[in-house]
Design brief:
The complex is a heterodimer of chains A (244) and B (206). Chain A is an alpha/beta fold and 244 residues long. In chain A, 20% of the residues lie in helices and 32% in strands. Chain A has a six-stranded antiparallel beta sheet, covered by helices on one side. In chain A, a hairpin with a 2-residue loop joins strand 1 and strand 2. The N and C termini of chain B lie far apart (43 Å). The chains are: A alpha/beta (244), B mainly beta (206). The structure holds flavin-adenine dinucleotide.
C-alpha cells in the first residue's frame, strides 16, 4: 500500500458534531499511520464515470489503528460535502487515498514547542488530530489553540476540547456572530490584538499552525509575522473555498 | 485493470447544464486557434537522447527514455485551457501520462511539497504537489490525436489545465521534487506563484 494508491474505505460510523458538521469513521483495508495534520483525498464516482474529489484532514490520532475519522462541514451547494451529509449511511464505501501532506504536520515526540494553533471553522480538524495525538502519547509540550466559530452551537468538538484543556493545553474561543449570555471568551474576528494576547507567553519562536478558510489564514499569518513570530515557524493550510 | 468502483447514490453535479459562458474564467475570451507563446526559441530535441527525470526529494530518482516513457500507462483527456494573455480554448484533446502515474515510481520524502518542472532551453516553473496530483497534471505527448509539434512543446510537455498555461511547461526534461514552492521562471518575473485562472491570479500580488 502506498499513500497515493486509491483504496476502498467502509464508513462504519457517522457522528453529528454540530448542525452542519458530521464526523465519519472510515475503516481502511490499507491503513497507514499518519502524522497529525495530514489529510486524505476522497473521491466519488458516478455510474457514467464522472468523478468528484476533495481533500479532508484526518481528525483522529495517529495512534488509532485501522481506521480514521474525517470531520466534514456541509458547504452550501457543495457537491461532495452535501453528498456525504445527505446520502451516505454506515456501511457505504468510498474511495480514498492517503495519508497525504508532509508540511502541515506535527509530531509531539520530536517537534519541539511550544505550539500555537489558530483555527477557523472546520480548520480545527487537523488541530484536533494534533491534540488527540498529544494526549495519546502523553506529551507535555505546551499548546495554545485559538479557535474562531460563528456561534456557540457551531463550535466543533466543544466538549472534547474542554476535556483536553488540561496539563499544558489552553483553549481560547472566539465567537464572531453571536454569543450566549455570560460568554467570557472573545467575541470578534481574529485580529492583531487577539493573536498578540494568545501568542505572547510563547515568544517569537512558537511553532505555529494556522488552518481554515483562505482569508482567515492569510490575515492570521500576516498578523503573526507583524507580531514578529518567525515566518519559518508558521505553517498554514487553506481549506478553500474550492478545495484545491 | 479492476472494474471501476462506483459510489452508491452519487450522481454528481449536472454536467449538461453547464453553459459555455460558465467555462470561461474572468477576464478571459474564447479562441478557437491555438496561439503559441514561449519565453525563448523553440529547441530541437532528439528523441534518441530524450529523457524524462523524476528527481529531488525522492528515495530513488527515476529516468525514462522515450520508448520507456511511451510504455507507461497513458490517458486521453479533454480540458479547457487558459493563457494569462487572456485566451481560453475549450475542449483541447491530449494524450499523456499523469503525474500520479509518474509519482507511483518513487517514494516521496516526508518534506516533499512541490515540483519544479525543468525544460530544454532553461525554462522552469513551479507547482505545488497538491496542484499536480489527483489527475490534475500530465506529461502530454499527443495533441488532437497527433504527436505534439515542437512549437507546442513537443516531444513532451507538462499540461496542468486548471492553472494558467505558463505552468504547462513545454519541452519538459525533468520534474524535481522540492520542499517548498520555489518560484520558477515566470513566477520570478512578476507572475503569480500559483496562477489559478478562476481567481485571476495573474501576477504576484493578485
Ligand atoms: C488540505 C485540505 C484539507 C481539508 N480538510 C477539510 C476538513 O477536514 N473538513 C472540511 O469540511 N473541509 C475540508 N477541506 C475542504 C474540502 O476539501 C472541500 O473543499 C469542501 O468540503 C467543499 O467541497 P464541496 O464539494 O462540498 O463543495 P464544492 O462543490 O467544491 O463548492 C461549492 C461552493 O462552495 C464554495 N466552497 C468550496 N469549499 C468551501 C469551503 N471549504 N468553505 C466554504 N465554501 C466553500 C465554493 O466556492 C462553491 O461556491 C479541506 C481542503 C483542503 C485543501
Amino acid at each position: 500500500m502506498n499513500t497515493l494508491q486509491w483504496q476502498i474505505a467502509t464508513i462504519t460510523k457517522i457522528t453529528p458534531e454540530t448542525a452542519k458538521v458530521k464526523s465519519f469513521t472510515l475503516s481502511l483495508p490499507g491503513w497507514i499511520k499518519h502524522r497529525a495534520g495530514q489529510h486524505y483525498d476522497l473521491r466519488l464516482t458516478a455510474p457514467d464515470g464522472y468523478r468528484a474529489q476533495r481533500s479532508y484532514s484526518i481528525a483522529s490520532a495517529p495512534e488509532r489503528t485501522g481506521e480514521i475519522d474525517l470531520t466534514i462541514e456541509r458547504v452550501e451547494d457543495g457537491e461532495v460535502s452535501t453528498f456525504l451529509h445527505q446520502v451516505v449511511v454506515p456501511g457505504d464505501r468510498v474511495e480514498v487515498r492517503g495519508p497525504i501532506g508532509g508540511y502541515f504536520v506535527w509530531d509531539a515526540t520530536t517537534s519541539g514547542g511550544p505550539v500555537l494553533l489558530v483555527a477557523g471553522g472546520s480548520g480545527v480538524v487537523p488541530m484536533m488530530s494534533m491534540l488527540r495525538h498529544r494526549a495519546a502519547v502523553g506529551a507535555k509540550v505546551p499548546v495554545r489553540l485559538l479557535y474562531s466559530s460563528r456561534t456557540y452551537d457551531d463550535v466543533i468538538y466543544r466538549e472534547e476540547l474542554a476535556s483536553l484543556a488540561t496539563g499544558g493545553v489552553e483553549i481560547f474561543h472566539t465567537l464572531t456572530r453571536s454569543q450566549p449570555a455570560g460568554w467570557t471568551g472573545y467575541a470578534r474576528r481574529i485580529d492583531d490584538t487577539m493573536l498578540a494576547e494568545v501568542s505572547r507567553p510563547f515568544g517569537a519562536s512558537a511553532l505555529t499552525f494556522i488552518c481554515g478558510p483562505t482569508p482567515l489564514v492569510e490575515s492570521a499569518a500576516t498578523s503573526l509575522e507583524r507580531a514578529s513570530l518567525r515566518a519559518d515557524r508558521i505553517k498554514t493550510e487553506r481549506f478553500g473555498p474550492t478545495g484545491t | 485493470m479492476a472494474e471501476r468502483f462506483v459510489t452508491r447514490g452519487f450522481g454528481g453535479r449536472p454536467r449538461s447544464a453547464v453553459g459555455l459562458a460558465a467555462r470561461i474564467p474572468p477576464g478571459q475570451h474564447l479562441v478557437t486557434d491555438f496561439p503559441v507563446l514561449s519565453a525563448g526559441p523553440t529547441p530541437r530535441i532528439d528523441l534518441a537522447t530524450w529523457e524524462l527525470a523524476l528527481s529531488g526529494l525522492v528515495r530513488a530518482p527515476v529516468k525514462w527514455s522515450w520508448p520507456e516513457f511511451l510504455a507507461l500507462p497513458a490517458e486521453e483527456f479533454t480540458k479547457d485551457i487558459s493563457c494569462v494573455t487572456t485566451w481560453t480554448k475549450l475542449d483541447t484533446r491530449w494524450r499523456g501520462v499523469s503525474v500520479d502515474t509518474l509519482l507511483e515510481h518513487v517514494e516521496l520524502a516526508p518534506n516533499a511539497l512541490g515540483l519544479v518542472a525543468e525544460c530544454h532551453g532553461g525554462y522552469t516553473t513551479n507547482l505545488l504537489l497538491s496542484d499536480a496530483v489527483n489527475g490534475q497534471a500530465f506529461v502530454a505527448y499527443e495533441y488532437d490525436g497527433k504527436p505534439l509539434p515542437p512549437d507546442h512543446g513537443g516531444p513532451a510537455r507538462l499540461v496542468v489545465p486548471h492553472l494558467y498555461f505558463w505552468k504547462s511547461a513545454k519541452w519538459l526534461r525533468a520534474l524535481r521534487v522540492v520542499d517548498r514552492d520555489r518560484p520558477g521562471f515566470w513566477e520570478s518575473n512578476g507572475y503569480h506563484i500559483r496562477g489559478d485562472p478562476w481567481k485571476e491570479e495573474r501576477y504576484s500580488g493578485d
